[in-house]
Amino acid sequence: MFFSERLRQNIGIDLGTANTVVFVKDRGIILREPSVVAIDKNSRQLMAIGKEAKLMVGRTPGNIIAMRPLRDGVIVDFEITEQMIRRFIKKVYPNRWSSFFKPRIIIGAPYGITNVERRAIIEASIQAGAKETYLIEEPMAAAIGANLPIEEPTGNMVVDIGGGTTEVAVISLSGIVVAKSIRVAGDEMDQAIVNHCRKNYNLLIGERTAESIKIQLGSAYPKVKEKEIEVNGRDLVTGLPRTFTLTSSEIRHALLEPVNTIVQTIRLTLEQTPPELSVDVSNNGIYLTGGGAMLKGLDTYITEETSLKVVVVEDPLSSVAYGTGKVLEDLDRYKRVLIAEKT
To answer: Are residues 109 and 241 in the same domain?
Structure first.
């Protein structure tokens, strides 16, 4: 038994709406790719995954579809998600494992997903070749990955802003005491930029362009020096390409609605937090994780709106994946934080 456990591959997966991050025990994070696939419309077979597929978004011929098989943190296309997981695992282990030494997999899942959604993630993982599959709620995995003292009787608030969902949770004694999950995160910010360009410039831009604008100009708090960039879009009146200029101040205004929705969710979670843990959160501050935590000035804006210290954790993009890895390394210790299991 000991020999087989040593040979078993242990994999942690942050299966995100925007990106998939894979952690392998004793090797660390070895894969980080967009959760995007390109499929043949007729045969439903995968043509490309990850970075290669993302480059195809908005550029495919009629017989190929570039898509995300997950939306708002949950599976919308079971068959394609299973194929995507299988291909990502194959990238990690090019030489397929034997049936005796199939991997144990831990996957980060959004807080509050339904039993049906849990089952879909687990089944997709099993079909992709896992021997055992466990799920862990993403805010808990993020807290573990950020080295927060989750086992102590003290409250720590984690705000995990991903591509499809934002999870706000107060954690104490290895459990989530109060939490909220909203389907407002990085994708909504991108859509807000698309809507801004359509409404104010009568121009249509793609999601890749919107994401690039967010990275270059996006902020939640005024900067000392504002920036501007030139952007290409399609004129909705003439149908012709046109170049226009966007400024960081107008993009900040465009992002105000999704950012304020996140802040309001933090406030609502704080209102439902027991008084003793509220004091802990006041002393410890709020920890931001996930790709959305990298929006410039977001920590400052939340501090201004809540009067609480806000800390962006080190490597926020990897917190959930690192958390799954730590659980893999000491499964007995962390077994109580897992929310589902299937073998």
So the answer is: no
